[in-house]
Sequence to fold (459 residues):
Amino acid sequence: MSDALINSLAAAVQAQPDDLPLRLHLAEMLVAAGRGAEAIGHVAQALAQDPANVGAQQLMARALGNPVPPSPPVPTAPSAPSSAPASPPAPASPSAPASPSAPAFPSETASPSETASPSGPGGPIPPSGIDWAAMEQQFGDVVPPRFSRPESSSSGDGVDPVRGHADRSFDVERSGVTLADVGGMADVKKRLEVSFLGPLRNPKLRTLFGKSLRGGLLLYGPPGCGKTFLARAVAGEMGASFISLSITDVLNMWIGSSERNLHDLFESARGHAPCVLFLDEIDALGHKRSQLQSSMRTVVNQLLTELDGVDGGNDGVFVLAATNAPWDVDAALRRPGRLDRTVLVLPPDGPARAAILEYHLRDRPVAGIDLDAVAAATDHYSGADLAHLCETAAEYAMRDSIATGEVRMISQADMLAAAREVRPSTDSWFATARNVAMFANESGEYDDLAAYLKKRKIR
Fold:
């Protein structure tokens, strides 16, 4: 019965890891059941949350098999001074407890023999009565250290605090959005379903056709069209971990540090598989090596090695990369087996624009807005442009409310006036992309871009 209760409490603690009273109750049950080694880990996590918790300190002492440290004494108010001369203090008996009025620390004139405390294997035992150094030696294999403290700043196998050569920990997220939350992008969703999501949902078919759970997809297009949001939606659709990488997570001024940071990133993704690894602005990290100095060339070489998964299998790691300038990405990154699939992420179509406008107006006071009409007036706008349009319309309504002293809603006139002021930011990108599609498309990798430009009649 006791084991069943302990198992139930352990499951509850796993579901609510921040519930401190519940964790301490589980630890107390483990100690009472003679399973002190298991209780130590729970009490250690409780003390990490609340180091001053007296109950947790006493429970740790019980789990370690030491005497329970006494609770701190409650301070009392000093008594009023007496005019009678004080009698000399009586000599203290070795077995008598210390008087409450005795000083907490020995006086400066006390001899070393009077102030010395018993010593343990690790040195003097603190006043709490627990020899922590001896306990660390005894239970070092049971409870691994929570923090790594370098002994020195030397290199080698240790940690170099100056150069930052420590084991990196990256933010591993769980996305709450799915592909259903992404407006439009039917071609992008279809490619994702065929390349990764379908094989993940059908393991038997995946085995039959020999499809591996690895691969890479390069998303490119004008800025502000939802490439990052799409990557989060893929992770949410899979129920997978999500790690986003920026160039600041990798680059370091010390030789070899950038390459090690990149390796640690991929190791973290492999350890959390299935995982979506999102490489934002891949043109900055994987620029053409012919245009780089030697220090950055080695970073690109390391990225190529990690994508190949030579040292560790990349099964279950799906790499999504995004860029506004795919023509600046090194050609070796786009060969089969690496970022071998390329998808153009275009500005949202009419229904997607209406959905984006509705999303950005959901918490604002609106009245009589025709979303379809506004969507028709915002052709070629990116998602970021539409968010800025809603912000501008809200400023119009707020300005009039301040001037008149009466609060009014955001109206259709505000939205159309904002559409005339906010111009699409994608035009400048398409002007540059047009030259690439016309004069640098020998291999046909920009055929989808050329078709879209022809449809828009951009010459």
